[in-house]
Design a protein that fits this description.
The chain is α/β, with parallel strands linked by helices. The chain has 36 helices and 18 strands. The longest helix has 27 residues. This is Scarecrow-like protein 3.
């Protein structure tokens, strides 16, 4: 139950969303920013369907505002760019299973098919052939046709021969569907044939539809098309919109503002005539030519094809609010269903919302229309309406009741079934259609021509460049863009991003192109961070339904690159040397997300083989994932028992940077009488994150509001307006939430603050570690200077460093064999690049203050920090280096090497002689008092 205060806050979300949409239409960057901040704040109060819908809607509004700025719009990576086909297909199946409307639609369609073909008699000499054509594509689900097979099996007079043709763009899905249905048909003794057509409805060649769908004369034909036909309504209506002129734009804004203040929906300002686009007309003519017994159409009953954005926004917000409520109710109280609901909301419904609100022209394919509009399209194309039978409607209502809904959720209108939520808001429409007796010749308009993006202005010069020339061009553009971003030059940065996105892509075959796409996204976010509301409204990887794949991506990285294996091996070797002769050993694993039980299983074996037998071993692991810690405890306990090693495991559910240094002894359960070893891999840099909250207000700075900035400027373009906003050095009072703040990098105050010690937390932590008196502390860190105060220095260092890591991944994925293995490795490489390295690049380049966690430093810098905290270096032995080199040699990793540092006390892990990671060992310095590490 929500308290009244929470309910009152949530009641504000609707009006703020309407106001935000109005400001997006105005092109008001600052007013949109204010609204987006408010939406983010209100939506974070408590989790619920309206809050989740608001966050997705806010992301779409932010992206629509950026659409005219093509460089930024093209550079920003959306979570949908990470969707993998198997998980996307799982989300589609979840959608069909969780939605009472889709499930009920399938039941109704099956019943109508049975009734339409029941007059086709089975004779002694010839068995009836029923050919079902499933054009539902991504909505298609095997369960619908499994149920129909059972219905045919129970039919009086016996089942017919069934031919099923399915159109879908996923070859693996079609193969699975073929297997399931063929096995079921064999079990039911039904003659069955499955035909697969790889593609989408809008890409079919309508001129040859009979051949494509393998339709034979003499068959009874039933066509089912669920939630797909609206995609054939896509037209290039950008020109139409621009022709409406400024008056319609003003009406657009006025309507949304009226809704923001009054909460009701006035009549649309623009009601275009219902016209059947050429692509849809060609498709329907081709269907008529097949002379089907029946055609079943299920569509979303909503007007998302309105020309004006305000009409679409209002309709979409109301429609998807009902859908989100429905899915929330179905999944309530079931954690597994809750995960499925989240996947559907983000991967299916969220993508529909983004397409409706962000896209225009031929790219806007989610053009849902109401039943009366579909009836007009079908009537014009020579189809006549067939009423649903009483039995079909009865079975549909029974199916709704199985979801906890009642018969009021199924409403009959014009002899069609409208499936509605508890509020009288239609969700889906199912209708039966027979073609009229008159048949006209089918015509075709190739769909591919409609869905090919229009050539960009940069296309010609891109095509003229060779691969090497494109690489040189990309590097130059990235440096140029970074310089413009650092200077706050919005228009020039946008121009650079436009050119980069013409050359770069996450899916490009060449490493540098993929790297450039990742850095372009980070640079765009870096500049947008100056407008916090807009920046935070954009959904990130953490918001992606594939965020649960990040641990899997880290495992792929462990498999593909040797660095973590080398870190674990050399750390264990150093621990073994330090613990020689010790009978009670306590190892503290502070590696967090870089932790892996493999490291400690190897240590078990090393201890078991040592002279004198293994010690009593205790491992304490710090990790924020409870599931990971539980799995780690089970794995290590089993291996320790198998090796007869006395063993205890302690779990600390936290992140390293959340630990309280003052309570370290208690939290880590450090006991006297045990020899302590500490291992921290690729995590210590997180303690360098400085909390810049205190820097947000500078006494005596200007307090101009964005409204005042706009009043003083009369820009000729939206880009100029934003550039003026970003280039105006503001600083506002901390309690002024509607203000965008920034400080000049050249400001003496900023320079003074950048020179202050930024590692107080690290210094405190290291002092407390020293107080624990560990025999050894082994630190593995990326060997790069990503903690520089100057942005360009960080950018240049990051570009060179991650270029090497991308090269390493490319080498690993391309050297695998055979071809099937290569495909798997390339998929895993893409997952690492997108979910792990891209997030690190964003952390280095785009974030600041406490949010910038990826603050990697070089070994020399770590040495100064450790020594300032009262630690002294322990030399890493030559034996450890030789073991590491043997590992590289045994695994066939050419190009990698392990070398000592200049003083012969630490190791560097190199790729083609470039150090990428360092490992060093430390212990408390004798007779020294620790002091805080310097900046």
């Amino acid at each position: 139950m929500q308290d009244q205060g929470t309910a009152d806050h949530l009641a504000q979300l609707g009006p703020i969303l309407y106001a935000c949409a109005a400001h997006v239409i105005e092109g008001s960057f600052e007013k949109t920013d204010i609204c987006l901040r408010q939406i983010k704040r209100l939506a974070s109060i408590v989790d619920g369907p309206l809050q989740r819908l608001s966050l997705i809607t806010a992301d779409s509004l932010a992206r629509r505002l950026l659409c005219p700025i093509q460089g930024f719009a093209g550079a920003l990576i959306h979570p949908s760019d990470y969707f993998e086909q198997p998980i996307l297909q799982t989300a589609r199946c979840n959608h069909a299973e969780l939605s009472p409307y889709i499930s009920t639609g399938f039941v109704t369609i099956n019943r109508a098919i049975l009734e339409a073909v029941e007059d086709e008699k089975v004779t002694v000499y010839k068995i009836q052939v029923v050919h079902i054509i499933d054009l539902s594509c991504s909505t298609s689900h095997p369960r619908q046709w499994l149920n129909l097979l059972h219905d045919f099996h129970g039919r009086k007079g016996g089942p017919p021969e069934v031919r099923l043709t399915v159109v879908h763009d996923d070859k693996d899905f079609l193969a699975t569907m073929r297997r399931l249905l063929s096995e079921e048909a064999d079990m039911l003794n039904i003659p069955f044939q499955f035909n697969s057509v790889i593609g989408r409805l809008e890409t079919l060649e309508f001129r040859n539809l009979r051949d494509t769908l393998n339709v034979k004369y003499g068959e009874a034909i039933a066509i089912s098309c669920s939630l797909q036909m609206h995609r054939l309504l896509a037209v290039d209506d950008n020109l139409s919109y621009s022709g409406i002129g400024q008056l319609q734009k003003m009406a657009n804004i006025a309507r949304l503002k009226q809704m923001a203040s009054s909460g009701y929906s006035p009549v649309s300002t623009l009601s275009p005539q219902c016209q059947t686009p050429k692509l849809l007309a060609s498709f329907l003519n081709a269907i008529r030519a097949l002379k089907p017994n029946i055609m079943l159409v299920m569509e979303q009953d909503a007007d998302h094809n309105a020309l004006l954005f305000c009409d679409r926004f209002v309709e979409a917000l109301n429609y998807y609010a009902a859908l989100f409520d429905s899915f929330h109710a179905v999944a309530a109280g079931n954690p597994r269903r809750a995960d499925e609901r989240t996947r559907v909301e983000r991967m299916i419904l969220g993508e529909e919302i983004k397409n409706i609100l962000v896209c225009e022209g031929v790219h806007r394919h989610e053009r849902h229309e109401r039943l009366r509009q579909w009836a007009t399209h079908m009537d014009r194309s020579g189809f006549e309406h067939v009423p649903l039978s009483f039995d079909a409607i009865r079975k549909a209502r029974q199916n709704l009741m199985s979801f906890g809904l009642d018969e009021r959720n199924g409403k009959v209108e014009s002899d069609c079934l409208l499936l509605i939520n508890s509020a009288p808001k239609p969700e889906e429409t199912t209708m039966d259609i027979f073609p009229e007796d008159t048949v006209s010749s089918a015509t075709s308009s190739p769909a591919s021509s409609l869905y090919t993006p229009s050539p960009h202005g940069y296309g010609s010069w891109v095509q003229e460049l060779s691969h090497d020339q494109q690489g040189v061009q990309l590097i130059g553009l990235l440096y140029q863009c970074a310089a413009e971003v650092g200077a706050g030059a919005f228009d020039r940065a946008n121009h650079s991003l436009e050119q980069i996105t013409q050359l770069a892509s996450l899916d490009a075959p060449h490493t540098l192109q993929r790297l450039a796409a990742v850095f372009a996204d980070a640079l765009a976010r870096k500049l947008l961070n100056r407008v916090p509301g807009l920046s935070r409204a954009l959904l990130s990887t953490a918001n992606s339904p594939e965020s649960h794949l990040i641990p899997a991506a880290r495992r792929h990285m462990f498999d593909m690159l040797p660095f973590m294996k080398l870190a674990y091996l050399t750390t264990n070797h150093a621990i073994m040397e330090a613990m020689e002769g010790e009978r009670f050993v306590h190892v503290v694993d502070l590696s967090g997300e870089a932790s892996n039980p493999v490291q400690w299983i190897a240590l078990f074996h090393a201890f078991r083989a040592r002279r004198g037998g293994p010690p009593h071993l205790r491992i304490t692991a710090v990790n924020e994932s409870k599931e990971f810690l539980a799995d780690m405890a089970g794995v290590l306990a089993r291996d320790a028992e198998a090796l007869d090693i006395p063993f205890q495991f302690a779990a600390v559910e936290a992140r390293l940077d959340d630990l309280d240094p003052d309570a370290l002894r208690h939290v880590l359960r450090v006991r006297s009488g045990e020899a302590l070893a500490i291992s921290v891999v690729a995590q210590l840099h997180r303690l360098l994150a400085a909390d810049d909250a205190s820097r947000r207000h500078v006494p005596g700075s200007s307090c101009l509001t964005p409204v005042q900035i706009m009043a003083r400027s009369s820009p000729s373009s939206f880009g100029e307006l934003l550039e003026r906003e970003l280039n105006t050095r503001l600083q506002l009072s901390p309690d002024t939430s509607s203000v965008i703040s920034s400080l000049s990098p050249q400001s003496p105050v900023v320079q003074q603050q950048q020179q202050r010690p930024a590692a107080a937390k690290l210094g405190s932590f290291l002092q407390e570690v020293r107080a624990l008196s560990p025999k050894i502390m082994v630190v593995a860190e990326p060997e790069a200077n990503h903690n520089a105060a100057a942005f360009m220095e960080r950018f240049e260092e990051a570009l060179n460093y991650y270029a090497s890591l991308f090269d390493c991944l490319e080498r690993a994925s391309s050297s695998s064999s055979p071809a099937a293995g290569q495909g798997r490795w390339r998929a895993e490489r893409a997952r690492v690049e997108r979910l792990v390295l891209r997030e690190e690049v964003c952390g280095v380049v785009a974030r600041e203050g406490a949010e910038r966690k990826e603050r990697h430093e070089r070994l020399a810098q770590w040495g100064r920090r450790m020594e300032a905290a009262g630690m002294e270096k322990v030399g890493m032995s030559y034996g450890g280096m030789m073991e590491a080199r043997k590992l590289l040699q045994s695994l066939g990793w050419g190009g990698y090497d392990v070398v000592h540092d200049a003083r012969g006390e630490a190791f560097f892990f190199c790729w083609h002689r470039k150090p990428l990671y360092s490992v060093s060992a430390w212990r408390p310095a004798a007779c020294r008092h620790g002091r805080l590490a310097g900046a």
